[in-house]
Specification:
With about 240 residues, the protein is α/β, with parallel strands linked by helices. The protein is about 40% helix and about 25% strand. Residues about 240-244 have low confidence and may be disordered. Helix 3 (about 50-60) runs parallel beside helix 4 (about 80-85). It has a single domain, classed as Vaccinia Virus protein VP39 (Rossmann fold, 3-Layer(aba) Sandwich). It binds S-adenosylmethionine (SAM). S-adenosylmethionine (SAM) binds near residues 74, 79 and 144.
Length: about 240
């Protein structure tokens, strides 16, 4: 039987708790407990990241989506796959750190391959230069995918392939966002990838508190802002990869 629809304030409280967990194993435990209500709760929060990120990727995709192989990292219950499929991307692999979220993604039936993997402590279960595009949506923040793992996303992306990342711009996430942006710039300076676009979105999702809404740059009407980064992997030579 479907669980009763919760109020926005209960959802805000729950997601505020999630944002405050900065330890990775505690965060994964939290997602294990949250999994069965996740889709319903993020719909109440007006969580738009999957659609917005897929729109960005699709707008810059250089060839037919039907032929592309994509990896959805921290895929959760598969909301990104739903959006990808609407735009014709049908060869999808996913990795996810929470067993219960992964189980729900399996039940959606949109991924040809799904693996349990906690990125950061673990490498991605994929060969190098394998995917036409790699996405991380809603999982780049403290206690989730560490910014230091971005080079692992690049490893599994083909030369000329795209990497699409999102993060939040609310006050509590700003230190992480700054560190992430420094890592993105470092990899660009090292010639590993080139920026295709950066897209700031004012109404990313509803804020979990008035304080978060008020302190989120560019946000409006109780929402926090967020950001989408799209990069294209450059041809690598042994000298370019040394020390990066
Ligand atoms: C906010 S949800 C986003 C899920 C999905 N991408 C979406 O947009 O609906 C974050 C997901 O990232 C997963 N996650 C967090 N850190 C992770 C890590 N280091 N490795 C793998 N999965 C992780 C969580 O278990 C959770 O399912």
């Amino acid at each position: 039987m479907a669980s009763p629809r919760r109020s926005l304030s209960r959802v805000q409280e729950r997601i505020g708790t999630s944002h405050s967990i900065t330890d990775l194993s505690q965060k994964i435990d939290f997602y294990d407990q949250w999994a069965s209500d996740y889709d319903q709760d993020v719909a109440i929060l007006d969580y738009r990241a999957p659609r917005l990120a897929v729109d960005c990727l699709a707008s810059a995709f250089p060839f037919s989506p039907q032929e592309a192989l994509l990896l959805d990292v921290a895929c959760g219950t598969g909301l990104v796959a739903v959006e990808l499929q609407k735009r014709g991307f049908c060869h999808l692999h996913g990795v996810e750190g929470s067993k219960n979220m992964l189980e729900l993604a399996k039940q959606r039936g949109l991924y040809q391959q799904l693996s349990l993997c906690v990125l950061g402590p673990e490498a991605l279960p994929a060969p190098s230069d394998h995917y036409d595009a790699v996405m991380v949506v809603g999982a780049l923040s403290d206690g989730q995918v560490p910014y230091s793992a971005v080079s692992e996303l690049l490893r599994v992306t083909k030369s000329g392939g795209l990497v699409c990342l999102t993060t939040r711009s609310n006050p509590s996430n700003l230190p992480y966002k700054e560190a992430l942006e420094a890592e993105l710039a470092r990899l660009e300076q090292a010639g590993r990838w080139k920026r295709v676009l950066v897209h700031t979105v004012d109404q990313w999702e509803r804020a979990t508190s008035e304080k978060e809404a008020a302190g989120s740059s560019g946000s409006s009407h109780g929402f926090i802002s967020g950001i989408i980064y799209l990069y294209c992997k450059q041809e690598t030579t042994p000298s370019k990869t040394m020390g990066v």
